[in-house]
Design a protein that fits this description.
Helix content: 25-40%
Number of helices: 6
CATH topology: Nucleotidyltransferase, domain 5
Number of domains: 1
Length: about 220
Amino acid sequence: MFINKLNHKSFSEGYIHRLMNILGITARIRRKKVNRKKIKPEYTKENILSRDFTAKAPNEKWLTDVTEVSVLGDTRKLYLSSIMDLYDNSIIEYKLSFKNNNHLIFSMFDKAIKKYPDAKPIFHSDRGFQYTENAFKSKIDEAGMTQSMSRVGKCIDNGPMEGFFGTLKTEMYYGKKFKTLEELRGKIVEYIKFYNEKRFQKRLGCMAPLEYRNHASTCA
């Protein structure tokens, strides 16, 4: 059952599916994730988050990860690093780069801290090489955050973040043609804005992430 809290109307999933058929809207099937090459970590952390993907307030739990996309005919790859707030599933910060390196992760993290200087969330990631370096550990400690990491080979430990990447690729990347990586980069920026501001989510009472955050703050 889908419930829109703004107009107090509810719709069954069957009704939504019938509307999709009438409008010619179909779902896209997500592709399987490609495993990345493993690098021996300098340090690791336990899975403190422990798949508890609920949050009672903003900036209580943050998830992060990196995904990659490419364009036919271009040997380069485009990397998207993002941070999700589990309170409303919003993407609070992200960065795009043609290089998957420390600068991609560190600069994105610095932007998030600048935006939310008082945030002390559980910061959860997989065991990618950037997150397991002592230099990143120092950033986490300096920010007063609690670091958490997925178990080896357990993508579900970072499920909502993986889900966002899957949704993004399914809705605006797979099956689409892009002339250049620069064009694709612009479309990703547009999609994240759409996702945060206009894409309804069932878990949020059929509101968009930022709509849910604003609605909750006015009702507090």
